[in-house]
Here is the input.
Amino acid sequence: MKLLKSISLFVLYPLCMLGLGFYAGVETSHFFYPEEREDNSNPFTGGLPVVTPQPKEVPEQETEPVPVTDDRFDYGIVMDEPENPDEEAEEVSFTAETLCVDTEYVLEETDVLYHTVVETIWRLPDKYVGMNRDQFLKAMEVYEAFPPLSELERGFVGLEVLSFSRERVVVQMNYKYVQPSSSFYLAAYDNKVIVYLEDKRTVYIETEIPLDSLPFEIQQSIMEMMWIENEEKLYDFLENYSS
Here is the structure.
């Protein structure tokens, strides 16, 4: 019996020391390598490896533009307003409906007695460049009320604006052309002698003869519209008193 006890003690003691050494080795490994313990916390369970699901990529959604409405300030949008809306509107109107240097200036010269028309295209006079429709119509009204003397000599009686655009403006000039006259009248205008036809309204000739250079009796007659009976006597008078 004593032999068996001594043998059992001899065997058990080394086994106990071996177990303590194994346990101490495992704990020491866990102390120095904690990541291995977390990744393989249960190495004896077996089974399939655990796969950590990756999050799916969600496609970016396109941001819809914020509609611009009268309530645009609710969306945090501040839009610049024109300082003077009326001025901006006038500028648009100016550029769209005004005459320029390239505008065709068409004159339709109409004989009101015989109803004939002669059309001519001219360069737009500089004084009309930049005018809109209303300004041009007013300018034509002034021209009709106070026509040049040269136009009166041709028998000008009036005008009408037929069309107006940036590309082309058409003006109808009406004339009652001067007809042959058997007699004439001399009158004074701006201290110069002018010759009227027998209707006393249509200018026939605008002379350069100063009124005050004539004899006093002739000056008085001319101021009262001096009658000249025919064309021959008219040219005799002009030759005698022309410088």
About this structure: The first helix runs from residue 2 to 32. Strands lie at 104-111, 116-123, 156-164, 168-175, 184-189, 192-197, 203-210, 226-228. Residues 184-241 form one domain.
